[in-house]
Write a structure and sequence with these properties.
2 domains, mainly alpha
Length: 100
């Protein structure tokens, strides 16, 4: 393995730190290496783009089949998935909360 020094924008460094904080990467270096191995979708490499559209469609159909979600069900889902915690952290770093 080679050690190199690079300069990256502050927001990329913050993103890498969040990935480490939430256990999505072992270190900032591991996070950056993962971006090199699997380029993000915005680089225009379609084979790396997840098919979120199909997943959202399936979930929307399932919710429609049961007549929608009550506010209690939505609150339970957000709490179970940890989305409220993510929203709190997102607000701390001036990001938009995740909409569900």
């Amino acid at each position: 393995m080679k050690q190199v020094t690079i300069t990256i924008p502050d927001h990329i460094y913050a993103e890498a730190q969040r990935a480490v904080r939430y256990g999505n990467a072992a270190s900032v270096a591991d996070y950056l290496a993962s971006l090199v191995r699997r380029p993000p979708a915005f680089l225009g490499i379609p084979e790396y783009e997840p098919d979120w559209e199909e997943g959202r469609k399936i979930v929307a159909e399932m919710i429609a089949e049961v007549g929608g979600l009550t506010p209690e069900a939505k609150a339970w889902s957000r709490a179970t998935l940890g989305l409220d915690e993510v929203s709190e952290v997102a607000n701390e770093v001036a990001l938009e909360p995740i909409a569900v």
